[in-house]
């Protein structure tokens, strides 16, 4: 059976840069040798086995240059034919494009230029058969070239039509083929080894060549009076010197350029100059012009175009709910149910006349179809953008049809002109002004703003600085700050400012003595004892407001944000959602909730988090963890389980992103998967029924490296992006600190992982079909980069009732075929091995009746080793199908009495029991070095287990003394038996954080008299700590029962001090210690000998305490540097030396 993949191309403007080749005659170069023939039943550019083909391959710039070719027009291409085709190749087309791809491992969607247009190609004899281009392809001399060839439908077929190929390795050529239809517009799906040997006719490599990148620019849709910019790179892509004489833009009305070059400019081979062109439309409509680059050999013309637009046009379905009336000032329009695609534009016919400083009532009548949310926008600044500062939200959901009102105050900064008002009602979530999809209606009107009379006495809140709207903050204390503005015409004095969380008591006042001049603002910050705090985790409305005698306008007195206060979670942190921590949601659709299903351990009716793609057609929503404190971690790791199936091929997606500012902004995704991505998000085939996980085998294990965030406080956001498919579920979120993380690509069976660094190795014995070849790859799913708007749904995540509210479901899906088996895949997977050198949590053992140890024993262990592994594999299929052996290094394993009695054990995670695997102990030179378990499937946690044992040490004393930020530990033993060492471990007091080993002290072997020991733990930060001793004997037995009986507290320093860096001299890293006795703005800056600031290590308000900061000078030259500490009125400077 021959598969046909259909793809709909987006319309693209193809604009070319015309470069004249006026220097020397073209040359014909040959690329490749006669390695293998293409085969009659496979893919090649003259194949006649099917009636229509499309193929792609890449000719690299290095290949062209090595063959003697240079930048400029390619005029022809020839194939080395080894077997003639059985007939004419009809409608033969050759298309080319510049590309960064180096092979054909994925379908290339670069903008193509047609160079041979629908010819009849007859390769009627062997040897070189040449295609002369209708339109030469202008190669820029630096990029690789994508060759895209298609033909058909031919009049017949036969097993014939071969060419010579070279570079006979995988993923060099790809194609699609069929008998009944032309494949020129179809996505290529099959890959093969080798690519066609070709001859190209083009300029020789010795010419100077003028190259302009990009060769054309369509700025697209740009809002009127806004600016879009593009930097152009002018390069000499040839060998000889090129002289650029000047650059000009024909029409500078809309297109302007910034050029700091002085002409003429001589460019040697590979040298660049740059110019910036901007497009700023002043009215609507399309505009175009040319930029001309003049040189001593060429005149190059770059086409510029763009379109000016005004307001975005939203689209929705108004069949169920709509706005029937809007009244505002003297505007009153009853539209009833009339709307098209959920949008009605009355801005040209209906106007509201309003004045600055005045307050008006916006009234809207809605006919609801469920739970509705309403917003209005006023373009106060006339920039054709409806942003969050111009946004007004009706505060609660609307569940009853009727008339509702909001008060709108026209700001004094509003433009005195005609501008836009938009009222938008949306089902089940707040709308954004330009959203497309979902149910609801948007209506646009015009407002005519004239100058009003400013009030004499009017003071209020102009903006909230902190916390941000929807921000997650530490409930133990967070600053609140806002700008207070005098909106009146009289000076204002004696202004009181307060804040209040929900119905709690007001905090304040902070008094502004004044006078505050008309129009002036001042920043007010509640800090110290007045910080925002909460005894419990809570999401609430924070109102900041003013009290000013004689204030005549109360509408601007108060500003409100939603804030989430949580107690930061320490690591290790595990969330199975049975009694979840304070998770919150934020986004444009109400997707996330809690429901029950079968969890990854196979337990039924267990609570987990669901992304309801089944009922929501558009939008996204973050599921946000509380703050997770990674202080003290070095290699933090996130793992979780996910299960998802599509409805009929919809491209629902999941991003996992990290925020370091409480969920206000997020970094680039650590995980970005969708149904169409490779690997796919899906873990099961498509289904038209609303999906709930029904078996442990539904789930896939994901592991992500968080080491870049070590030492920081983070929020993890699980961003669900709906395409109206089927449900996604996540469970068992685990954040732990590992000793090492390795991320390893997997292409074929074999051993992966380094026993010396990972202490583990995975030996794949069978991979699902496709890794290493054999199945059909598909395109990566494209999840658009999301710029986070104001959080539209912010609050605690709740348990969902499927029957309330009733969700509208319309399931008339067409054109998307069901995928009945494993998802299409690529040629590689990804193995993640995380190694942890600490005791795993929540250890239980499933009764063992069959798994054997190396000495043949069968028993159920009762102790687990002090290290374990988390292993995941994304094998590009639904549940990462693979069979493998696992090998664990035991050369450093402690507490072992009989190595042949050890088990490798496996579990889902700490929510499930450890399961014994039949285990082999491997020896080298008579020494046990590895454990091995064979024939495993599924990926999760692994450990080493055995029977219980004890260690003989009698500890009679263990105490601590504190000197500033140093702790001296002292302990004594009455006697010792075979004692090798003590590991000293520390963790923050009154937490469940992992114990961290901070040092080791050699033991005394076997003695029967008192021994005394000490350990000095230096340079601690202010705080409370717990200590314990982990004792290890020479046989590897271990005990961690020796805990210090009291909490050690490192207090606040009494003086300001900056210590000498250590080491000094250094290369390239050093540490800087300092202490500050009082809270204050603190800055730690590095300077060179000239006084130039080269680095800032600290620039923030710090609490009293001891601090250590790392300085990495890898980018600096050797020499003397100074570091200066400034805090409050204190300044100290010290000298350090970098020697490389």
Properties at a glance:
1% helix; eight-stranded mixed β-sheet; seven-stranded antiparallel β-sheet; mainly beta; 1140 residues; 1 helix
Structure characterization notes:
- With 1140 residues, the protein is mostly beta strands.
- It contains 1 helix and 80 strands.
- Strands 42, 44, 47, 48, 50, 51, 53 and 58 form an 8-stranded mixed β-sheet that branches. Strands 1, 2, 4, 7, 9, 12 and 13 form a 7-stranded antiparallel β-sheet that branches.
- The chain is globular and about 100 Å long.
- The relative contact order is 0.06.
Structure described in brief:
The protein has one helix and 80 strands.
Produce the secondary structure layout.
Elements lengths: L26 E5 L4 E2 L14 E8 L1 H6 L5 E12 L5 E11 L13 E9 L5 E13 L4 E8 L10 E5 L6 E6 L11 E3 L2 E2 L1 E5 L7 E4 L2 E8 L4 E9 L5 E8 L5 E4 L6 E3 L4 E8 L5 E11 L3 E11 L5 E3 L4 E7 L2 E4 L8 E3 L5 E5 L3 E9 L4 E7 L12 E3 L8 E8 L8 E10 L8 E15 L8 E8 L4 E4 L5 E7 L8 E7 L5 E6 L8 E6 L11 E10 L10 E9 L2 E2 L2 E3 L8 E4 L4 E6 L8 E6 L8 E5 L3 E2 L6 E9 L8 E7 L11 E4 L25 E6 L7 E9 L6 E10 L2 E7 L3 E3 L7 E8 L27 E2 L32 E8 L26 E12 L7 E8 L13 E5 L7 E3 L2 E5 L2 E10 L4 E6 L6 E11 L2 E23 L7 E12 L3 E7 L5 E11 L4 E6 L4 E3 L6 E2 L10 E8 L3 E9 L4 E10 L2 E8 L6 E9 ...
Parallel strand pairs: 15-22, 23-33, 26-33, 27-33, 35-41, 42-48
Antiparallel strand pairs: 1-13, 2-9, 3-8, 3-10, 4-7, 4-9, 4-13, 5-6, 5-8, 9-12, 10-11, 14-16, 16-20, 17-19, 17-21, 18-20, 21-22, 24-25, 24-28, 28-31, 29-30, 29-32, 32-33, 34-36, 36-39, 37-38, 37-40, 40-41, 43-54, 44-47, 44-58, 45-46, 46-54, 47-53, 48-53, 49-52, 49-54, 50-51, 50-53, 55-59, ...
